[in-house]
Amino acid sequence: MSVPDWIAAGAAVGAAVLVGWQSWETRKSAHAAADAATTANSAIELSRSALEVARTEEGHTRRLIVEAIKTRIDANAHPLSVFINHSAEWPPLEPSISGGQANPLPTDRIYRLPKDGGELILVRFGFRINNLGGHSVTVNINDAWIGDDGTGGNQTVAAGEQCVLPNSALDGFFEIQRTVSEWVEIARRRQDGHPGEETTWTVTLSDDSETGAIDRFELVAGGTPLVKVENEEGGWRLSPGQYKDYARSSPVMAAVELPRKRDYYLSRSKGLLLDEAFATDLSTN
């Protein structure tokens, strides 16, 4: 082998070794990069897990704070209860055009449509608001109602605030006034399986605290005082009694009290509800 050939062979071997070393280094770098990526991903997952734990712990702490505030508000809330008679006063009444006392309607009167469709029929439900506490409270009634005028008669009381004295009750009547045609439409809808138009009254109680509660009592009445006259087209009359059955279990017109709704406020002057005030998520900070 001549000297130039030997040199060429050595150069070729050196080049092969260099290429092999470079390949090994490349694979080593690739493995290192993969290990680094795996470590980074693990760190990201660990951070996410830590953040979720922090969110969970923060949410748990907030719930504890909210429940503690609600417990304090509940302890200081006024003991008030609201009831409504589950059946209407009977018989229904004829409203006075002159604004005087409404008069009972005869139950044997037949209303014929369309001639009598515009006549008015008034139905009353008795209610009671009990203040079981030792302090006077002010409630807000969303509709006009009928109260005692102090002489044994009745008077119309405008919607708005009413004071209920300590350990006493406020009694009155809520009224529903509709035309014969409107009452008949409710009867027809109920025959088709629908409740028909209902009436809702609301009694609201607010305490005096900046961080406190507002209680709402909703009373709902439905039904109709009219029944169809058999074998007479367009004939309707008042039900002979306030119940459909002798067991007195199914009123012709019925009313119920819905469960009390209590809204908790962190700041009543700002309209800031307690649950909303503590609802900010950690990820938004």
Commentary on this structure:
The chain folds into two domains: 1-76; 81-277, no CATH class. By secondary structure, the protein is of the alpha+beta class. It has helices at residues 3-76, 180-191, 274-277, and strands at residues 80-84, 93-94, 103-104, 110-112, 120-131, 137-141, 145-148, 154-157, 160-164, 168-179, 199-206, 213-223, 226-228, 235-238, 253-257, 261-267, 272-273. Mean pLDDT is 82; it is low at 281-285. The protein is elongated and about 130 Å long.
Task: Describe how the helices and strands are arranged.
Blueprint: H1 3-76, E1 80-84, E2 93-94, E3 103-104, E4 110-112, E5 120-131, E6 137-141, E7 145-148, E8 154-157, E9 160-164, E10 168-179, H2 180-191, E11 199-206, E12 213-223, E13 226-228, E14 235-238, E15 253-257, E16 261-267, E17 272-273, H3 274-277
Antiparallel strand pairs: 1-5, 2-3, 4-14, 5-10, 6-9, 6-11, 7-8, 11-12, 12-15, 12-16, 13-14, 16-17
**Class inferred from helices and paired strands:** alpha+beta
What's the alpha carbon Rg, rounded to whole Å? 39 Å
Termini gap? 79 Å
Counting structural domains, the number is 2
Give me some keywords for this one.
285 residues, alpha+beta, 2 domains, 7-stranded antiparallel beta sheet, elongated
Write a concise synopsis of the structure shown.
Helices cover 32% and strands 33% of the residues.
